[in-house]
Amino acid sequence: MRALLVIDVQHAIVECKDFQQELNNIESIIRDFKENEEPIIFIRHLEGDEKSPFYRESPSSELHHALKKYADIVIEKKTPSSFFQTNLSEKLDQLGVNHLFITGFETEFCCQFTAIAAYDRGYRVTFIEDATGTVNDEATYEMKGLDIRDFVGTVLHWSTVIEVLDQEEYVGKYQSSTKA
């Protein structure tokens, strides 16, 4: 069975810049999973520091209003990996999931770490590159011309163990096949 992970779609991240295209791509994939009655699991990053935008009581740590209505299952995490010290593995086992689709935010951290951790746990993993986003850019890493999302997607693709698609490729490969 397939499941969709929607990682860190929280106000603290989404409101940092224009992520409308990423949100649209994520929502399109969510709708496909909903239509096929497949699990959608939202991951929410939380921190213990009251000054952090990810502090549990902070409104900025809440799931973003654009997608919150789809959050039937929410797993809370404290590290970049959605698996580390969470009940995500148990939930996936209960649901009979063997194939995870990765979407969400902080491409080079939470999405990438979760994709690799999922592979290490034996899941088939599909990373939807343009259904991820990051607040960071070439200036953050002092690497002129760096496209973080493309870089992470290329690294994961070259690993040959994690499938990397864009939203349009997802539609062609998975959406049409599940409705046939």
TrEMBL record:
An example Gene Ontology molecular-function term: hydrolase activity
UniProt superkingdom: Bacteria
InterPro entries: Isochorismatase-like_dom, Isochorismatase-like_hydrls, Isochorismatase-like_sf
Keyword Hydrolase: yes
Ranges of residues in domain Isochorismatase-like: 3-155
Keyword NAD: no
Keywords attached to this entry: Hydrolase
Sequence similarity: Belongs to the isochorismatase family.
Protein name: Isochorismatase family protein
Biological source species: Oceanobacillus profundus
